Amino acid sequence: MQVAEAVRFIDANIADAKAKFAAGQWEPMLEVEERRNALRNLAHAQGKAGDMDAARATISKIKRLAELLDDDSLGRRFTRSEWLMMSGWVQQEIGELDEARRTADAIKDPTNKNLAVAELAKAFAKSGRMESARELAAEALRVAHEIPNDDRPKIVYPEVHRVWAFERGATAQAEAGEIEGALKTADSIRDIRGGDQGVWDCLGAWRDIAFVLLRAGKVKEAMEIAKRVRALPQLPPPVSPAAVEFALVEFLRDAAMIQADKHDVDGAFAILDEFPRGGPYPHSRERHQVFVRIARACARSGDLNGIRRAQQSLPEDTSWDHTPALLSVYFARAVAGTDRVAARKSLDWAAKDCVDPSETPEHLTNAKAAAFLLIAESQPLIGDCHRGKGAAEHAHEPT
């Protein structure tokens, strides 16, 4: 019924809404935006259900809404280009890549066009249409050069938009298989803002390229990018070695998590071995985050050895972040289908590890809240919904 109301609103009130919006009255446009979002969700559902004709008709209604606007409208939120970009995203989601490309061609604002084309390049690459992916990656970079580097009120921190645009272009190149070109684009990002900030901008692009490689199974090539990060203190401009170390650890943590999600336990531990050692910073939090991700992946596949390996890799003092509790919960989830006794013992231990009589609900940490919620979700797996409710009551809003 909401969709039908949206269609009637569009048909009956488009002229009136446009006139009010031109006069600077936002309320009618907020109503239009609500209906646009309803239509987007409908088109997505129709496409996923296989009703492509209905999905195309719904997308055309979103484009009619875009006709209310022009690219000089009040703020980036209400521009024709932004709404066309959203139409293209829906077309991508339902597999209409050629239609999405035609929609992207109609976008005039360079920031939105860059975003639309870069995402479309990734979609074409994932569908195996590499030539089109390479063409779109090149288009994303061409458009990135058109993003104005001025202080117009519409564009807040314009140099940041340029950085993001070139980062998207580099990632699109990587998805299209052009790794050398992607790295060259990433290196060029350093000059946009310059100084230390330019270094971190460049590092962000390197990280995105490495993650594309990891997801494609090219671990060796991804770790070559880690060597670039290690070498940053030796390159101009001077960068704090400590800051680089923390950036490297975050890079390695995220890379190890990608391997864990692929259930490559050996690969995840191999990346953990690359963490800096012997310095003043143990980086325990980042290591524990990887252990938890490994255990989660292993719980899904029933790999008890992988979970035990993560448990055995923990240092003795880990009470501060409740990682042992989380690993025990994942162990329980892995054995719940075959050994409920062991699963119940593991969940009970996890709950005790999270309880500190000296603490009040106000002292609840994010880690403890996550542990209690996971315990609550896991209790029904062993047929104990009552305990699950009790654990959920401990998981108050984290402070």
What does this 3D model show about the protein?
It is a single chain. By secondary structure, the protein is mostly helical. It contains 19 helices and no strands. The radius of gyration is 25 Å and the shape is globular. The C terminus is likely disordered.
Label this structure with key terms.
disordered C terminus, 72% helix, 0% strand, globular, Serine Threonine Protein Phosphatase 5, Tetratricopeptide repeat, 399 residues, 19 helices, mainly alpha
Mean of all residue-level pLDDT scores: 82
- What CATH calls the topology of the domain at 109-232 is Serine Threonine Protein Phosphatase 5, Tetratricopeptide repeat
Q: Overall 3D geometry?
A: globular
Distance between the termini: 40 Å
Strand content: under 5%
Uncertain stretches: 151-155, 388-399
Largest sheet, described in full? none
Cα-based radius of gyration, to the nearest Å: 25 Å
| CATH architecture label name of the domain at 109-232 | Alpha Horseshoe
Element-by-element helix/strand order? HHHHHHHHHHHHHHHHHHH
Please identify which CATH superfamily of the domain at 109-232 we are dealing with.
Answer: Tetratricopeptide repeat domain
Classified by CATH, the class of the domain at 109-232 is: Mainly Alpha
The beta-strand count equals: 0
Q: Which structural category fits the helices and strands? A: mainly alpha
In a nutshell, what does this entry contain?
The chain has 399 residues and is an all-alpha fold.
